[in-house]
């Protein structure tokens, strides 16, 4: 093995690898935080050009002032549910987009229906208490709020 001053190339490579790993770990939270913030913006959700009509309807609704896509479409119970929901949806949506298998029209899945309904109740609980949410979905009456389903 070729020697260099103060040690071997192997030792230098190990130090460089440790330094790079340390830098990666130090900056990883910033990268995750930036990705989290970026993917929470409605503009990110329409970046695949398949949700333009829904985005247009949402941008003219009262929800635009306080609720983005994730507020309704991502589980909100706790951080684990939120991260798992975003990961699951990101994988599914990414696969559909990259494989060019986006249904037309887009329909919400049964699992996603449950999430959206829970989030309607989370924000509009007092109003929802007057109806039977186990028998009807909010969008049965509110078809175009905040965007059509």
Describe this structure in words.
By secondary structure, this protein is mainly alpha-helical. It has a domain at 40-141: Di-heme elbow motif domain (Multiheme cytochrome fold, Orthogonal Bundle). It is 61% helix and 3% strand. It contains 7 helices and 2 strands. It has helices spanning 9-39, 42-45, 52-59, 69-73, 79-98, 110-128, 138-141; strands at residues 3-4, 7-8. It has a two-stranded antiparallel sheet. The radius of gyration is 23 Å and the shape is elongated.
**Distance N terminus to C terminus?**
67 Å
Main sheet overview: 2 strands, antiparallel
Instruction: Give the CATH architecture of the domain at 40-141.
Output: Orthogonal Bundle
Task: Tell me the overall shape.
Answer: elongated
Q: Output mean pLDDT.
A: 80
Number of helices: 7
Calculate Rg over CA atoms. Answer: 23 Å
Oligomer: single chain
Question: By helix and strand content, what is the structural category?
Answer: mainly alpha
Give the percentage of residues in beta strands.
under 5%
- Annotation, overall tally of beta strands: 2
| CATH fold title of the domain at 40-141 | Multiheme cytochrome fold
Which homologous superfamily in CATH is the superfamily of the domain at 40-141?
Di-heme elbow motif domain
* Series of secondary-structure elements, N-terminal to C-terminal: EEHHHHHHH
- Unreliably modeled segments: none
| Biggest sheet: strand arrangement | 1-2
CATH class call of the domain at 40-141? Mainly Alpha
**Percentage of residues assigned to helices:** 55-70%
Family: Belongs to the NapC/NirT/NrfH family.
Domain NapC/NirT cytochrome c N-terminal: 15-144
Subcellular location: Cell membrane
GO molecular function: electron transfer activity; metal ion binding; nitrite reductase (cytochrome, ammonia-forming) activity
